[in-house]
Amino acid sequence: MTNTAETSTADLHRLMALMTGDEKHGPAATSTLDALQVLYDRVLRVTPATVDAPERDRFLLSKGHGPMAYYAVLAAKGFLAEDLLPGFGSYDSPLGHHPDRMLVPGAEIGSGSLGHGLPLAVGSALGLRAQGLTDPRVWVLVGDAELDEGSNHEAIAYAGAAGLEQLHTVVIDNASASYARPGGIVARFEAAGWSAETVDGRDHEAMYAAFTRPHPGRPRAVVARVEPKNA
Amino acid sequence: MDTMRDRFIATTGRLLDEDPRLAVVLAEISADGFQRAAARHPDRVVNVGIREQLLIGVGGGMALTGMRPVMHTFASFLVERPFEQVKLDLGHQGVGGVLVSAGASYDWPAGGFTHMSPGDVALLDTLDDWTVHVPGHPDEAEALLRHAVAGDDRVYVRLSLQVNDRARTVTGEGFLRVREGRGGVVVAVGPMLDGVLAATEGLDVTVLYATTVRPFDGEAVRRAVAGGGTADVVLVEPYLAGTSTAAATEALADVPHRVLGLGVGRRELRRYGGMDEHLAAHGLDPRGLRARITAFLRG
């Protein structure tokens, strides 16, 4: 079900420029771009034809800030029409500065308020399992500062204890949290019983290997490091 | 008699056997009661531990996959603590679910204000498109719960230890007319009915019984008012006073009218004791109700 045609980085930048009118983009917009590209090109088993199929993989963008990279990837993959991009943020556009699942084709959740995607992903994994759908995988993308939200602590602790193997979290780490975590982000997940690994968030092969590493009986977290937000 | 909460646990256990779409999400509260159901349906009875934000987020996520989640804990922790989750993980995502609370406004007065939630319905009123059931008897709780579970929408079922002596036939919509009169209309919500009937004994008033308060049955109130000589309406609610006043005035917008909203006072009592003492303190015992209702109708 994975899309066979891979996106080109140049094309994604062209699509993002349709929203921003600029070839250069803010850190929030581009921090997720490479991870999204690898996920949608090579990992997620979902296409525009299967957006409603029960067996599809779910991708939940929890870090709803700076969604231009997300919209660009969805457009490149054919989930939404490219001609919607220039209207970004306008009254008649379905594409807001935070995405709304009721408006954006292909978006699994509406997000923007931090700390909702991971708990929703836990519930999605549980809901799929309860229906005997053990093949679909649930992915959620969060930011490193977003992990400060208590709701995420609740979700991480529970998912590890429950051994939710279908659940996958990508943490985009642009060092934007005010306080460093003792031992780093991976330690937080490992302490809760997750399989976890840190990779270079610009290295597509490293991310692909980390995203697809087996993790029997445990949820999986991949921390994708990118340039610090305030660098 | 069993409690509404006992009935909720027993009924939901049976519904889990019948409806593969149904799931129950708990945060420790009532987990003991659901032990047998959890053993039979381990994937559909989920206890997330003492994590109320996750409780609602998990329900929302399950609903996104097509399940019908029932989320349950004490009202304070179900509606107030994770309120943004209720707003965003259900409503904003465009999915439904059933919130079932226990504890109500002062089911456990000795437990103090941390376990009282008189503001739950008013808080839900800030959100669009919630159905709110306030049963007054375990039989009604079961009927309303079955109605809620069968749908796809967002429903709040507010269970309490405060009950009426007997159950009425409730359908999950509209108000029932339980007494006829011409000198005013009193709307009794859920467990306030017995107190209202006692308080209005011998008064020439219509008494409407409301167990489904949202949507508010404005048509029933308009009809009741039209049948009398005066458009005076008293709302008697087991939660924050005035919670339904806006709905009543909206229903009567084109009729000269007066509305009195009775319910739990906003001021924190800082008292323990028993439920009767709290009812009296808020003027919601029959004696307090009669005094305030007659004073208003005379006015």
TrEMBL record, chain A:
Pfam families: Transketolase_N. Signal peptide: none annotated. Its cofactor is thiamine diphosphate. InterPro entries: THDP-binding, Transketolase_N. Residues 24-213 form the Transketolase N-terminal domain. Keywords: Thiamine pyrophosphate. GO terms for molecular function: magnesium ion binding. Belongs to the transketolase family. This is Transketolase.
TrEMBL record, chain B:
PANTHER family: HYPOTHETICAL TRANSKETOLASE FAMILY PROTEIN, PYRUVATE DEHYDROGENASE E1 COMPONENT. It comes from the Bacteria. It comes from Streptomyces ficellus. This is Transketolase. InterPro entries: PDH/Transketolase, THDP-binding, Transketo_C/PFOR_II, Transketolase-like_Pyr-bd. Gene3D superfamilies: 3.40.50.920, 3.40.50.970. Residues 2-167 form the Transketolase-like pyrimidine-binding domain. GO terms for molecular function: magnesium ion binding.
